[in-house]
Amino acid sequence: MSKSLHLSVQYARRPRSWPKKDLWYKWMSIALEATSGYVTLRLVDADEATTLNETYRKKSYPTNILSFPYDDIDDSDTIYGDLVVCVPVVEKEIHDQNKSLEEHLAHLVIHGMLHLQGYDHEVEEDAQIMEAKEIFLLNALGYADPYNT
């Protein structure tokens, strides 16, 4: 059975030289395990990321990506959710960690998509499973292991 991803991209903050929708779509599609998905990707500034992180995670700082699965929809074959990427945090990380924008964003988006599908990393065993999945998917796209740089 073929998979179907419906992607909406919102730019609260439009960065220069960031990927176009087709590349976001490619990264999300490879991480989609369900039959279909409806995902909104929103690129935001630090203020919006901080507000969301405070409201939903009780942490008062911006973070690189936030995942919001829609828990009120009972459909095991389809995922629904939002991914929020904080532009200035990602730009700082690629500079500080000497990473390429494309590889770092691919990792973050795959990470976020896995969260939308129930993966987590709060417990070490779960973190190992999630990281192995991320590495496998990134390697399939031709990207290096982000945990071994």
How many E-type strands? 4
How confident is the prediction overall: mean pLDDT?
94
Poorly predicted runs are: none
Our count of helices gives 5
Walkthrough of the structure:
The protein has 149 residues and is α/β, with parallel strands linked by helices. The protein has five helices and four strands; from the N terminus they run E-H-E-H-E-E-H-H-H. It has a four-stranded mixed sheet with strand order 1-2-4-3. A hairpin with an 8-residue loop joins strand 3 and strand 4.
List keywords for this structure.
149 residues; alpha/beta; 4-stranded mixed sheet; 5 helices
What's this, in brief?
With 149 residues, this protein is an alpha/beta fold.
Topology:
Layout lengths: L3 E8 L9 H11 L4 E9 L1 H12 L7 E5 L8 E9 H10 L4 H16 L7 H17 L9
Parallel strand pairs: 1-2, 2-4
Antiparallel strand pairs: 3-4
Helix pairs in contact: 1-4, 4-5
